[in-house]
Amino acid sequence: xxxxxxxxxxxxxxxxxxxxxxxxxxxxxxxxxxxxxxxxxxxxxxxxxxxxxxxxxxxxxxxxxxxxxxxxxxxxxxxxxxxxxxxxxxxxxxxxxxxxxxxxxxxxxxxxxxxxxxxxxxxxxxxxxxxxxxxxxxxxxxxxxxxxxxxxxxxxxxxxxxxxxxxxxxxxxxxxxxxxxxxxxxxxxxxxxxxxxxxxxxxxxxxxxxxxxxxxxxxxxxxxxxxxxxxxxxxxxxxxxxxxxxxxxxxxxxxxxxxxxxxxxxxxxxxxxxxxxxxxxxxxxxxxxxxxxxxxxxxxxxxxxxxxxxxxxxxxxxxxxxxxxxxxxxxxxxxxxxxxxxxxxxxxxxxxxxxxxxxxxxxxxxxxxxxxxxxxxxxxxxxxxxxxxxxxxxxxxxxxxxxxxxxxxxxxxxxxxxxxxxx
Length: 423
Known about the structure:
This protein is mainly alpha-helical. The protein has helices at residues 17-35, 40-72, 77-97, 101-106, 108-121, 147-165, 173-177, 180-193, 197-214, 218-237, 240-251, 263-275, 300-333, 337-361, 379-421; strands at residues 128-131, 134-140, 143-145. The chain has 15 helices and three strands.
């Protein structure tokens, strides 16, 4: 008896390993993108920003409740307005984070022109609003805004666009200065005419940071910085109040100056000192009982130190340091000159202004009148900073998407090569 071997059924041609592998890889990639977490830098930047805004609402309520109660009878009036601005600014930040880089390049010139027009409008009688000696406010139909805060953002994007376009020509000092210095200088002069030296100082810091990260040579920056410093000293000498502030800061406060220009810095220092290590407790500040002017704005860090102590103050500083580290990481990862300069300008704006504010409260700088970003009360400042962080988030998203696409291409090529080795 002979056993016959059954014939195997034909199932068609044998599948190609490389084809099936590529098909399987194509199915894995969308799933990985779908369930993978967002870019870590973007998540950390967003979380830290939102936390600072929420923390700022708490501190604005604590610092302003007494003054609001005595002036309007509603202790929640100022924090309610700040909450509205936060509810507007955070969605705008998220919308800005979804915009492509070309959107900011396209709108750099229009944004600067719109900001300049708004800044010029503060000198029109009937529209201008004077606050604390500054004429950099608009008042239209009961709604007030500070255009110079939005000019900062327009200046960052515009300077970044110009420097990125002239990247290979910046070794020549003429190309490094023109058109950045005339146009940016004109915007700063408009703010100085409105007697807002603090905002003008931050704008100059933004321009210098953009120039540095854009590739302008160091010796050009040094020479220009000396010229700006000389002009700033001359401008400060034109105002007796600025001279008195600087003199009080340099020589120290005396009993004769206590009720004058030393009142605010002296009470701010006392508030910080009374907080100790752990603070007197949230809401238990004594300085906010009409002893410390601008307690919820320029000097809110003093209230933080008084109520939350050294630990609370260090936590706030650590949060701003976290923002700085994340922005530096985004700058290092991007390969686009425009994106790097924009991120560097926003870094100098937010972190530089934060540490200028803290230095003023600590007595390391004369009183300049700049708020603490994301924390102090003020709708224009809050929305402008949130929009600026949204621009940085859009850059982080584009950078992460480019890296993911590059990684997928490398993995795809590696997968195709592996089956070939077994043949």
